Backbone:
């Protein structure tokens, strides 16, 4: 049966995997995959010597996006509560131009490890890792690019496949939609998985697709007005359910669904829980969970245990690193079909595409 978080995450196993990966590469060489601004800091001053001092730099939109960034922050908070970590969080400028400065600020203040939330930190993390070789870094949604960097990767296409299965089973007409925030290779993974899941149930389904901004223009992740316009058009054209992978812009998708009396699928966090407006909660049929919170926490926990970087940790369906939320009970009646699809992916019977 599906649980609220579509299964419990094997946290101890992943922590162990990170430690084994560190041992295998001697803490220095690059290893293979292991499957498993504005200062808004919780601590405004430099941490005490000898403490577990964790710094986190958000992606565009920062804390409060009810999705990607907030999922990362949940992992940081958990490290504070369970591991006694002293934490500091920083948000980038609206255009993300000061990402490197945030990493430097955290490093100079004595934070170690430091986590960059989002693939856009790639080059900045690499540069900071070279400049501060004694500090361990992690980057969400990008592979390791230095001996002291851990890549926290997710099988978004697998979770999105399940979202597609759910959408196809619930949309009587077989007409659904997908709204992507920015047309990057990462966000195309969500589209690819969703389309494959829909087609696995209804091969003749109609799937409308709209990206809010082109690759390189990251404002598409914080433009609820654009998300609303895109979803409105899909609902007007007959779509019954719209899935978004658009960060803060997903709020507009929910608004359009509420106005049209239709349904939407959230992303990253359980958005039926994180969205505050009651009228918007009701339209969120499910959310594709991307357990960034677990990835962040497990990285910090492994660091505390002595793990080093130079490797990647992959959070997939097998590890319950992605899945579907069941808050509201709207997909309880199709739980068996979703569980069957999950099992086929985990068993290797279904290979989910990562490109449309």
Residues:
């Amino acid at each position: 049966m599906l649980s609220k978080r579509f299964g419990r995450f094997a946290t101890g196993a992943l922590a162990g995997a990170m430690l084994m990966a560190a041992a295998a590469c001697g803490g220095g060489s690059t290893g293979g995959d292991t499957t498993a601004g504005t200062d808004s800091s919780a601590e405004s001053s430099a941490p005490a010597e000898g403490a577990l001092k964790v710094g986190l730099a958000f992606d565009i939109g920062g804390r409060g996006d009810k999705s990607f960034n907030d999922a990362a922050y949940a992992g940081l908070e958990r490290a504070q509560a369970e591991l006694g970590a002293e934490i500091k969080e920083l948000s980038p400028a609206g255009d993300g131009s000061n990402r490197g400065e945030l990493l430097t600020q955290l490093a100079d203040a004595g934070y170690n490890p430091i986590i960059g939330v989002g693939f856009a930190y790639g080059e900045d993390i690499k540069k900071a890792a070279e400049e501060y070789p004694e500090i361990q870094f992690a980057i969400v949604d990008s592979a390791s690019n230095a001996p002291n960097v851990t890549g926290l990767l997710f099988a978004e296409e697998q979770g999105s496949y399940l979202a597609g299965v759910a959408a196809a089973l619930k949309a009587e007409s077989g007409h659904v939609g997908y709204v992507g925030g920015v047309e990057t290779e990462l966000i195309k993974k969500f589209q690819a998985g969703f389309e494959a899941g829909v087609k696995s149930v209804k091969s003749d389904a109609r799937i409308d697709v709209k990206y809010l901004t082109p690759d390189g223009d990251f404002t598409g992740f914080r433009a609820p007005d654009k998300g609303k316009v895109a979803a409105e058009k899909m609902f007007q054209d007959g779509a019954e359910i719209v899935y978004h992978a658009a960060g803060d812009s997903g709020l507009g998708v929910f608004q359009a669904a509420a106005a049209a009396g239709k349904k939407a699928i959230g992303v990253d966090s359980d958005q039926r829980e994180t969205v505050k407006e009651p009228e918007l909660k009701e339209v969120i049929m499910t959310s594709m969970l991307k357990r960034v919170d677990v990835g962040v926490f497990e990285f910090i926990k492994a660091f505390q245990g002595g793990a080093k970087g130079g490797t990647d940790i992959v959070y997939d369906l097998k590890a319950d690193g992605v899945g579907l939320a069941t808050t509201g009970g709207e997909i309880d009646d199709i739980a068996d079909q979703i569980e069957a699809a999950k099992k086929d992916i985990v068993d290797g019977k279904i290979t989910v595409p990562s490109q449309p």
In short: Residues 156-289+326-346 form a domain with the Rossmann fold fold (CATH 3.40.50.2300). The radius of gyration is 20 Å.
